[in-house]
């Protein structure tokens, strides 16, 4: 049912004037008492980063605070659970993901080429289960940091021949913070050194007491390598899912989250989307973060082309105008014009937020400026061919600390260096680092005009060395 501008403002904790201004900018004149249709409500929610999920509006900053909007349970149907596997390095996350995937290729899929798209779906006793195939909690944390809630259940893998390690504890913390149910998988039970009791006791010390000891955490004992216990683990997931009763409405325009995105030399921007509500169709207009476009082609994790995909499906799409970021929320619209408008306002807003002081900075005069005490922070924009490298470069650069001067990465994304990067660099006095990406001629020209330094590298430590040298005033002159 419809809401007025005032009512919506209350629900999402914004001023009515902000909504009126936003809609005005999109060419829609309203007053505080105007009634908004569903589509406009969704559009406003998207603008303010409020996710409309399961017919419930969830504020990005506070997922706990859920407010019902036209909750109509009769529209919701069962959907597959979405699982993330976490745990300490070498405890067997990748092996488990591989074993599950190999063991559950259904007949029709047999022989199909599996593709890494960042998530996959298997069929267990006729029920589908979706796995996010990016082990480690960096991806999970990055998504959560952006407010995305993508996982229904976390499996924490602990090696029985090792024990609870720092990343095991981190995984526990992340799962707790996200408020999602946990299944503990005690792994490597095939090994002679395996000591299951020790793992159960250490996990209990960390607040996860096994059911068989009177606690309420489900423990499964597996060998990811041999396959022992994996069917039981999958069945446990099904039982838990039935209890949790995950639902969505397949009969509406799709919305969800970006799992992975990259720039493909031949195909352009490619994004893996997890559809969390609604159904996505080939040809739909979509806004993905600040990108937009049409779903030109949609494939599953076997590379098979799909005409449509429902809730909890991971799909890879092409057709976007730029590369989005993992954790970005996407939404399908019935008109491309609307999608474009929303993407543009979001982009302008993002640039405005990122913008600060002006005047160009080059690595050459960096040391002098540091010495003169003119700067305490060096702004950097990182662009790379894949999001993973962008994150890695960002992390390495931000660790540099020379004479108290730090590197502040104001943007790190996958994709070519664009005019928007130059504009942001110019606005915030930043240096641009490109990894396995190059600016085209017009972007280079723009950079020259604005006096922006673009540094191109394909080895991370070389870039770090160069930055450190520049900060110490030892940058080798370029002839
Ligand atoms: P990840 O870092 O958590 O993804 O761990 P991997 O899946 O890469 O596994 C690390 C190592 O442990 C690899 O050499 C695996 O073959 C081995 N491994 C994983 N699961 C098992 C298991 O159940 N039993 C045994 N014996 N080795 C395992």
UniProtKB/TrEMBL annotation:
It is found in: Cytoplasm. The keyword Membrane does not apply. Its main location: cytoplasm. Keywords: Cytoplasm, GTP-binding, Initiation factor, Nucleotide-binding, Protein biosynthesis. One of its GO terms (cellular component) is cytosol. Residues 78-246 form the Tr-type G domain. It comes from the Bacteria. GTP binds at residues 87-94, 133-137, 187-190. One of its GO terms (molecular function) is GTP binding. The keyword Protein biosynthesis applies. Residues 81-229 are annotated as: G-domain. One of the essential components for the initiation of protein synthesis. Protects formylmethionyl-tRNA from spontaneous hydrolysis and promotes its binding to the 30S ribosomal subunits. Also involved in the hydrolysis of GTP during the formation of the 70S ribosomal complex. Belongs to the TRAFAC class translation factor GTPase superfamily. Classic translation factor GTPase family. IF-2 subfamily. This is Translation initiation factor IF-2. It comes from Copranaerobaculum intestinale. The chain holds residues 42 to 520 of 618 of the full protein.
